């Protein structure tokens, strides 16, 4: 056991020694004209290099697997029998060198996971009740502990801020590089980095239970999960490798040509075929992980590539899930004065519509806080009346305007109908008996979503559907603005499931995109469930794809990436099969021999790896400027 471990730990050094001995052998023959040096250098190189190969072959046989290493081992023994020491030395060196390059190249495809695990905090500073601080191992932190996070440090737990404020880089969780302002009462994620300030955080989740811990576990599991192509190749290899042994035996029986039979063993190694699909999936999943896209394995990638119908929830998916002013119809001589009056009135209320209006006034740089409210009264079912700076102000619905004899002109009635048609909630503002503003407040459509939906179509989506529990007027308006094919409104969760089943019965391959919480039945029913969420437990655990940024740019990239990965996998399989056919033809024709065949074989492994590595760089990472521009983009 110790000997095996020693050989495995020093395999790279053995490869280097083998290369040196091969060089010495050729130097002895061509520079010193010594066949003794030539033969012994290759003999020693063969023996040294074949040891780790035979160890792997033995370990595979112990679990009843006929591996590639067994084929090479038999081929080397055969080469020794016929005295082809140079062939055996070159074959073993190429095999070890190919294994070295393969592992080195594969490690690059896992850099996203390595970088994640390296970001995981190892220690935490606990604040005790007596005010003292103690730095402890992360495994010694308990839920409920108060943790201090200093500037530049990584947050070690999921929790809530008890005191302090600062800007946090949450890119490790969301993939979004823009710093996020956090203050008392806000939640924080493990792995986030504090850019400034000092925070005290109460731990709510620790260790593997944190969002960051689940992300690492999910991506690691995903890279080990097999696609249908991988599963097929694994089964194929189980039968293919023994078949090569049988074919080599038959070649010898019928031809009595031992060198040719040995060469068949070498050329029959299915290395590129076995590795082609896994390396593509690993690279594709790693690409997504760098961008905050979690794809749960090769099977998910394969299913996602087949999707032709995207079904969307509305609130929090197609829209941002927060109310904002969507329309302002102005009839005042001084718009800022009217807006200041309504904002001052709404400051008296905690209604979500009121907050949307005060936020709008603040963004418009309207100064309203200093206005003096003499009196105010809430009229149930209508709105608020107030006296501000000597003006009588009415803020409410049409019923309030009618009750207070505020007359609307034909134009104002038309504007009112237009705002109502969008499905927006309407707030009407009258000052001193005259209508001054009609304000529409609605859930905000995601910026730039129309272009992103078109991008989904460009990549192969045929049907874009909205299923929502919201009212028909609002749903239809949103669908018209962003260009959906179908919209079904006022649905219960179980009714959404029925629609998805209906689409599947029609032969469509369906992906449901929701927030990962109230839409979990629909997510589970669709062939692919996609959660637009910032790392909620339900989103991570129930969906097939998690978009940590909650962005449609990420959705488009994930869809395109899945298709690209499946194509890349097929390319690798085609390359591997093509090489095997080429080698067999070359063997029959007579221009391929053991050493040259092994060289082509190892080269084919590297070709499929490098082909897969193109997936790591697929799609450009958005710059900070592009992300900012996207946020400012509005629907046209």
Automatic annotation (TrEMBL):
Compartments, record wording: Cell membrane; Membrane
Catalytic reaction annotation: Cd(2+)(in) + ATP + H2O = Cd(2+)(out) + ADP + phosphate + H(+)
Protein's membrane topology: Multi-pass membrane protein
Top-rank taxon, per record: Bacteria
E.C. designation(s): 7.2.2.21
Transmembrane segments: 12-31, 37-58, 65-83, 89-106, 236-255, 261-286, 573-593, 599-616
One Pfam assignment: E1-E2_ATPase
PROSITE patterns assigned to the protein according to its UniProt record, in alphabetical order: ATPASE_E1_E2, COF_2
Alphabetic keyword roster: ATP-binding, Cadmium, Cell membrane, Membrane, Metal-binding, Nucleotide-binding, Translocase, Transmembrane, Transmembrane helix
UniProt xrefs under InterPro entries: ATPase_P-typ_cyto_dom_N, ATPase_P-typ_P_site, ATPase_P-typ_TM_dom_sf, ATPase_P-typ_transduc_dom_A_sf, ATPase_P-type_domA, Cation_Transport_ATPase_IB, HAD-like_sf, HAD_sf
Domain P-type ATPase A: residue ranges: 119-220
PANTHER family in the record: CADMIUM/ZINC-TRANSPORTING ATPASE HMA2-RELATED (PTHR48085), CADMIUM_ZINC-TRANSPORTING ATPASE HMA4-RELATED (PTHR48085:SF5)
Record family assignment: Belongs to the cation transport ATPase (P-type) (TC 3.A.3) family. Type IB subfamily.
Name by which UniProt lists this protein: Cd(2+)-exporting ATPase
The organism of origin for this protein: Secundilactobacillus hailunensis
């Amino acid at each position: 056991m110790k000997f095996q471990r020693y050989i495995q730990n020093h395999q790279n050094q053995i490869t280097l020694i083998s290369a040196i001995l091969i060089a010495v052998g050729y130097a002895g023959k061509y520079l010193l004209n010594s066949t003794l040096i030539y033969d012994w250098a290759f003999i020693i190189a063969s023996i040294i290099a074949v040891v780790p190969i035979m160890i792997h072959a033995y370990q595979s046989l112990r679990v009843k697997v006929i591996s590639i290493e067994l084929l090479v081992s038999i081929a080397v023994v055969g080469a020794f029998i016929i005295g082809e020491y140079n062939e055996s030395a070159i074959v073993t060196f190429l095999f070890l060198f190919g294994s070295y390059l393969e592992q080195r190249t594969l490690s690059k495809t896992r850099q996203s996971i390595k970088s994640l695990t390296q970001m995981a905090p190892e220690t935490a500073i606990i604040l005790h009740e007596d005010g003292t601080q103690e730095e402890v191992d992360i495994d010694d932190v308990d839920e409920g502990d108060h943790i201090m996070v200093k500037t530049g440090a990584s947050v070690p737990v999921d929790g809530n801020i008890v005191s302090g404020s600062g800007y946090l880089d949450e890119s490790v969780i969301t993939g979004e590089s823009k710093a996020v302002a956090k203050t008392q009462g806000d939640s924080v994620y493990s792995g986030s980095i504090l850019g400034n300030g000092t925070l005290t955080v109460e731990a709510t989740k620790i260790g593997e239970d944190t969002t960051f811990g689940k992300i690492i576990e999910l991506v690691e599991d995903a890279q080990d999960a097999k696609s249908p192509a991988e599963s097929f190749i694994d089964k194929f290899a189980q039968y293919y490798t023994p078949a090569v042994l049988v074919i080599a035996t038959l070649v010898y029986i019928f031809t009595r040509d031992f060198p040719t039979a040995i060469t068949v063993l070498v050329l029959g190694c299915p290395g590129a075929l076995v590795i082609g699909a896994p390396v593509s999936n690993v690279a594709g999943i790693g690409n997504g992980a760098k961008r905050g896209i979690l794809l749960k394995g090769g099977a998910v990638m394969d299913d996602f590539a087949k999707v032709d119908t995207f079904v969307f929830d509305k609130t929090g998916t197609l829209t941002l899930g927060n109310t904002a002013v969507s329309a302002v119809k102005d009839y005042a001589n001084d718009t800022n004065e009217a807006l200041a009056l309504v904002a001052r009135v709404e400051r008296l209320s905690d209604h979500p519509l009121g907050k949307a209006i005060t936020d709008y006034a603040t963004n418009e740089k309207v100064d309203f806080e200093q206005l003096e409210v003499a009196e105010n009264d809430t009229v149930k079912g209508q709105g608020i009346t107030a006296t501000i700076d000597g003006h009588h102000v009415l803020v409410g619905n049409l019923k309030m305007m009618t009750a207070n004899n505020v007359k609307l002109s034909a134009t104002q009635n038309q504007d009112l109908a237009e705002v109502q048609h969008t499905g927006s909630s309407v707030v009407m503002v009258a000052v001193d008996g005259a209508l001054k503003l009609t304000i529409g407040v609605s859930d905000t459509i995601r910026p730039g979503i129309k272009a992103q939906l078109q991008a989904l179509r460009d990549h192969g989506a045929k049907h874009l559907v909205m299923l929502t529990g919201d009212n028909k007027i609002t749903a239809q308006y949103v669908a018209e603005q962003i260009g959906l094919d179908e919209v079904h409104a006022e649905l219960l969760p179980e009714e959404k499931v029925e629609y998805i089943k209906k689409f599947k019965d029609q032969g469509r391959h369906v992906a449901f995109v929701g927030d990962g919480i109230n839409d979990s039945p629909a997510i589970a029913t669709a062939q692919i469930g996609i959660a637009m969420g910032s790392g909620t437990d339900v989103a991570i655990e129930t969906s097939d794809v998690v978009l940590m940024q909650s962005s449609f740019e990420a959705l488009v990239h994930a869809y395109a990436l899945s298709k690209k990965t499946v194509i890349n996998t097929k390319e690798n399989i085609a390359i591997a099969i093509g090489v095997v056919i080429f080698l067999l033809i070359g063997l029959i024709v007579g221009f391929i021999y053991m050493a040259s065949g092994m060289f082509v074989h190892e080269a084919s492994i590297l070709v499929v790896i490098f082909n897969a590595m193109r997936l790591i760089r697929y799609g450009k990472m958005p710059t900070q400027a592009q992300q900012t521009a996207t946020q400012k983009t509005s629907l046209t």
